[in-house]
Amino acid sequence: MMTYLLKYMSLRARGEPVRWVLKVLGVNYTEETFDVLGEWPARKQEFKFRKVPVLMVDGEQLHQTTVICRFLGERHHLASGDLWTATRQMEVVEALHDLTNSMGMALLARKYGNEERQKAMTGLTAAQFPVVLSNIESRITDKGWILSQQMTWVDVFIAAYLDVYENYFPGVVGKFPLCEALRRQVQDIPVIKAWRQERPAWHSFEDPQGLVALSDGSQ
Ligand SMILES: N[C@@H](CCC(=O)N[C@@H](CS)C(=O)NCC(=O)O)C(=O)O
Asked: Residues lining ligand 1, judged by CB closer than 6 Å?
């Protein structure tokens, strides 16, 4: 049996998709979190790519959020076995995951008090979000899952991000009924329901409250 240790900051951000996939799979894992502002600078050097999340797999570092989730899904049989299906699923996974770059920049700009940059980065993210959602929407099957008749790790990953991003861009997910239904289906899995109740409140760094002109670009 493999042992898993997730190392990430005390944020939702790129941590939630990994946590949700681990929880839905029901595998044993532990998590070590550190504060993005207070503790990260001292910890950064221990990571081979100087970035997190990192999943320690039997003591070895595995980087990259989407790679970690795909590995877990395939390793524990919550994945499509068809190469082309899995590839088209990865396309929307990466497209949604791309948003974390501009959104991360917006949050950093807020931290440094640069309102203009924060607005620009929020606007960029807001403009792209519905584009990605409409592509996901068109790939959801009559069973409610992305290019699949059964739930895969891809659905769990997407739902975890929608759960975070609907707070940054209120009302947008709701415009895509199949995406909204998928998000609810995954949120209703008991282990996810429990986690959403017990998880820590937003860290001030990523708190949706107080972001300037949240709806810029999405109207
Ligand atoms: N493509 C990577 C990006 C990882 C990344 O940028 N992580 C951020 C935190 S969400 C980080 O480690 N930032 C700290 C730094 O760059 O010093 C992934 O998806 O895991």
From this structure: 13-14, 44, 51-53, 64-65
Give me ligand 1 centre to Cα 149, in Å.
33
CATH value at residue 43: 1.20.1050.130
Tell me which residue has its CA closest to atom 17 in ligand 1.
51
Interval 30-77: pLDDT, tens: 999 999 989 999 999 999 999 999 999 999 999 999 999 999 999 999
Of 175, 132, 138, 177, nearest in space to 157 by CA: 132
Residue 86 binned pLDDT confidence (cut-offs 50, 70, 90): very high
- CA-to-CA distance for 100 and 55, rounded, in angstroms? 19
1 Cα to the center of ligand 1, angstroms: 28
CA of 142 to the centre of ligand 1 (A): 35
Residue 39 belongs to domain spanning: 1-219
Q: How far apart are CA 123 and CA 215, in angstroms?
A: 7
**CA 160/CA 10 separation, integer angstroms:** 16
Structural domains counted in the chain? 1
Please provide residue 149's backbone torsions phi and psi, each rounded to the nearest 5 degrees.
-85, -15
Is residue 218 predicted with pLDDT exceeding 50? no
Q: For residue 103, give every residue at least 6 positions away whose Cβ sits within 8 Å of its Cβ, in sequence order, or none.
A: 121, 122, 125, 165, 168
